[in-house]
Design a protein that fits this description.
16 strands; 7-stranded mixed beta sheet; 3-stranded antiparallel beta sheet; alpha/beta; globular; about 15% strand; single chain
């Protein structure tokens, strides 16, 4: 908040003060004026969030900045329309326009990824995974069970028969990447519904190298023989070999499901091709639509035609009514990603991540696997002897926004953690390149060296409190400010315009 308040004081020194209002500024003003007229505190919070994001280097790997058009698509009367069902098969009348929007989004998604089928209704990546899980369960477990009973409708079987099917649906095996190895909560973590609806078996990265051992995974897969082999990650910095994973899934008789929420933009931008592109190999692929894809917050499922009818029943089976305004924003984002300039952007995201990782390693920072192939970089904090919580908060004090993250064998657990995760999608959107990444790595390393845990009365270090060298903090904030002054977020929105809402 200290950094944000300083930035607010200097508002009229940034952006386009004194110039004619841009079209974007005019549109934002009209929107904010409506809100501010009756709800000034909410308008103020919106503007303060913009200023907050202008005041810190956003290094969170799962965040980005979407276009004005994507943002505008989410703020209109489409939000007032219920559209349960899917294109051409709705439970409400009057969905013609929603059908057009959803069809456009699906068509753009299929074109973008080369997928046979797209479902754009999920509200998040977690929802997309639930839709995919249940599509697989219905196709592979429920439908065959009904066929054995000579039925196609669940309502036509007895309570006893339904009980047996329910039992079978709730006792299927899944193999997912362990949370501490870079997997996601929705990949079978016990505190998530995915860990409560499946018999979960985790596979792990090697604790020494941080890499996935495909031979070991294959051996485990053939022993477990799960219904689903779930791949993908939220904190793994190397590419996955989907050709290899497809082969071992076939050998074990498993459905190959890929959660590409983190690297979807690198797939769309043709950075990940051939065996590193999951689309030609997976039965079902799920993703978010923000992160590297640079669209609205939301989810999506891509699949082969074999699973299409099951995926399309996501609403009402798993989801409530879809959000037409977000589907409109997805359609715009997908069309933006289908342009050549998005491929150039995606390539720069990966280039920047490599530059950042290399610069950190040169400064003596422990980067698991020694680098990165994608958009994210992990940092192991064992050497400096501080926790992820301490490092995350200290970095924020110094102008860097990132998140603490577990590492393989993490002794501090998923809340405190022993690592950090950094990403380059948002900074790349701002136009930063390898030179800025090296500068950021220097800032990061200087701050990390300046953080010391506070001691308890018995002399043991705490896991949350810390001391931070004041001179290092001051220098870091100055360096961050200089970087951000050259790369202003939404520069069309100038200080004079923004300050009137504060």
């Amino acid at each position: 908040m200290e950094i944000l308040n300083d930035y607010i004081k200097s508002l009229c020194g940034a952006g386009r003060c004194g110039q004619a209002p841009s079209p974007e500024m005019t549109a934002y003003a009209a929107n904010l004026d409506i809100i501010a007229k009756s709800y000034p505190d909410i308008a103020r919070a919106i503007i303060r969030e913009l200023l907050d994001q202008r005041s810190y280097l956003k290094l969170i790997a799962s965040e980005n900045y979407c276009s004005y058009a994507v943002q505008a698509a989410m703020g209109n009367l489409l939000t007032d329309k219920y559209a349960e069902g899917y294109v051409g098969k709705r439970f409400y009348a009057g969905c013609d326009n929603v059908d057009d929007i959803e069809r456009r989004a699906c068509d753009e998604a299929k074109k973008l990824f080369g997928a046979e089928h797209a479902y754009v209704q999920p509200h998040s990546g977690a929802d997309a995974n639930l839709v995919a899980f249940w599509a697989i369960l219905r196709h592979k477990v429920q439908t065959p069970a009904l066929e054995r009973l000579g039925q196609t409708n669940l309502l036509n079987i007895s309570d006893t028969e339904w009980g047996e099917i329910r039992h079978a649906l709730g006792n299927q095996r899944i193999m997912g990447l362990d949370l501490y190895s870079g997997g996601h909560l929705t990949h079978g973590y016990r505190h998530n519904i995915s860990g409560q609806m499946f018999d979960v078996h985790f596979y792990h990265v090697d604790k020494e190298t941080g890499l996935l051992d495909y031979d070991k995974l294959r051996k485990q897969l053939l022993e477990v023989k799960p219904l689903i082999l779930l791949t993908g990650f939220s904190a793994y910095s190397r590419n996955l070999d989907f050709e290899c994973l497809r082969g071992m899934a076939d050998e074990a008789g498993a459905v190959l499901m890929v959660d590409m929420a983190h690297f979807a933009g690198l797939v769309a931008g043709k950075v990940l091709q051939s065996r590193y592109n999951p689309i030609p190999y997976a039965d079902i692929v799920t993703t978010t639509t923000h992160k590297t894809l640079r669209g609205p917050r939301g989810g999506m499922v891509l699949c082969t035609k074999e699973y299409a009818e099951y995926v399309d029943k996501g609403c009402p089976h798993v989801l409530g009514g879809p959000l037409p305004q977000v589907m409109a924003a997805k359609a715009i984002a997908f069309e933006e990603a289908n342009r050549p300039e998005f491929q150039a952007y995606a390539a720069k995201v990966a280039e920047n991540a490599k530059a950042l990782a290399e610069a950190l390693v040169k400064r003596g920072i422990n980067v698991p696997t020694g680098g990165t192939d994608n958009h994210l970089v992990l940092v192991n904090l064992d050497a400096p002897g501080i926790t992820g919580t301490q490092a995350e908060n200290a970095m924020r004090e110094c102008g860097l926004t990132l998140n603490r993250n577990t590492i393989p064998g993490d002794k501090n657990g998923p809340w405190i953690t022993s690592g950090l995760r950094l990403g380059t999608p948002a900074l790349t959107t701002l136009g930063m390149g390898p030179d800025e990444m090296k500068e950021i790595a220097d800032i990061f390393a200087d701050v990390l060296a300046a953080v010391k845990p506070k001691l308890k009365k018995n002399g043991d270090p705490t896991k949350t409190e810390y001391n931070l060298n004041a001179d290092v903090k001051k220098r870091s904030l100055e360096r961050v400010r200089r970087l951000l002054d050259k790369h202003v977020l939404y520069p069309e929105l100038d200080g004079a315009f923004l300050s009137k809402y504060l």
